[in-house]
Amino acid sequence: MKKTKIKKYKKIRKKSNRGKKIVYSIFILLTCLSLYFFFSAYQYISNIPEANNITQEEIYALTRIDESNIKLVRALKNEAFDSWLYEANDTKVKQLQNAKDNVLDITEGKVKISDIDHMIADLKESVTIINEADIEELYGLYYKKMLAKQHKKADIAFQELRLEQPEEHYKEILTLLDLLNKIYTQKGMHSVTSEPIFKKSVNLLEEINNNFMEVNQIKSMFVNYDNLTEPIPRPETRLGLELDDYVYKVNDYLQSKIMVTEFEEKYEELKFNLSENKEQIDKSVDVPDLVGMTVEQARNELTKLKLNISIQGYTNKRYRNGDSVPESQRKTEEWDDDKEGKVIRQDPSHLEYDYIIQDSTIQITVENKPIEKEEESSDSSSSSISTSSTDSSDSTKETSSTTEKRVTN
């Protein structure tokens, strides 16, 4: 009986110990949870703005949205305000001013062109809310500002640039050129390339390029003046006008060169003509007087002088019955082969020319033998007109032939 009671007591005691352990475990768990919530609450309290020396008034001043704020600045302010409001975290509020200052430096063109890419990359890394649209807007605002500044600098540098020491002003011009190239090759910059300042910058560089091209052309012509065939045009650009002296010197040289060449050509022509003339003089003979000679005598005379003969007849001044032939009916005709016929005319005549070149031809005219008188008919008047016309035509042919032979000889 006692043993049974002891066993029951031990069981009750075991249960009691087990219950104590459970209660103790629950107490320890509650204690840990209490400590956790206490420290969490403490951390929360320590993170609220007032605990970090930043007031609500300062929060609202820093995160207030202004109309002049670009999208990126507005996004930065919204994110900072949300972080403070919902997370009791003012870190982004404190970093807001620095990020905003960097953005403003970019939009106001206070960043060097060589540093802009690096600065925007750092901004993207430090601020997670930046997207590609923000980047394009930042670049666009930056380029517009920088173009206005750099265009003014390059324009002043160009106006002050002189050919004697151009390197002093090259830097600003090349910087503008590099900036335009950078804008051209970057995507999403249509808003910049359509701006008036961009077009003004392009026009300025075109003007500078035209100046440099003309200067180089003039210098090249000056160096290679021996090969010039045409004068250098008068310069039209501002820098080209600085080389006026070079242009005048080259053009004067070219004019002298042309005159010398022309003189040499004409002198060579003169020497050739003198040589030809001397040769002609060596071969020339006195023009003989053949009028009154017979054909046979004239032929012999011309053979001695190494001259050729051409003979034509002329209607005799009398008919066979002794009547005179009207002058209107006398005409040039075929020679009648009478070697005793007398020369009445020659071409060229010794009265007009003193000398004649050997192997030239002298044309002689002789009177043919008298011919029978033509019978008169009712058509005599018309025949007379026809004969007169024929004589006139033959006379014209004779004159033309004589003139032609004179030129040839």
List keywords for this structure.
four-stranded mixed β-sheet; 409 residues; alpha+beta; disordered C terminus; two-stranded antiparallel ribbon; 13 helices
Question: If you had to describe this structure to a student in words, what would you say it looks like?
Answer:
This protein has 409 residues and is an alpha+beta fold. The chain is rod-shaped and about 210 Å long. It contains 13 helices and 6 strands. It starts with a helix and ends with a helix. α2 (56-63) packs antiparallel against α3, α6 packs antiparallel against α7 (167-184) and α7 packs across α9. The protein is 64% helix and 7% strand. The protein has a 4-stranded mixed β-sheet. Mean pLDDT is 76; it is low at 378-409. The protein has helices at 2-47, 56-63, 71-87, 91-107, 116-126, 132-160, 167-184, 190-193, 196-223, 238-241, 244-283, 295-304, 380-408; strands at 284-286, 308-314, 332-333, 343-347, 355-357, 361-367.
Brief overview:
With 409 residues, the chain is an alpha+beta fold. The protein has 13 helices and 6 strands. Strands 3-2-6-4 form a 4-stranded mixed β-sheet.
Strands in their spatial order, largest beta sheet: 3-2-6-4
Instruction: Indicate the percent of residues in helices.
Output: 55-70%
Biggest sheet, open or closed, and with what strands and sense?
A: 4 strands, mixed
- Per DSSP, the total helix count is 13
Mean pLDDT level: 76
Measured distance between first and last alpha carbons: 184 Å
Rg computed from alpha carbons, rounded to a whole number of angstroms: 61 Å
How much of the residues is beta strand, in percent?
A: 5-15%
Q: How many runs of DSSP E, i.e. beta strands?
A: 6
| Low-pLDDT windows of residues | 378-409
The secondary-structure element order is: HHHHHHHHHHHEHEEEEEH
Shape: rod-shaped
Q: Report the structural category.
A: alpha+beta
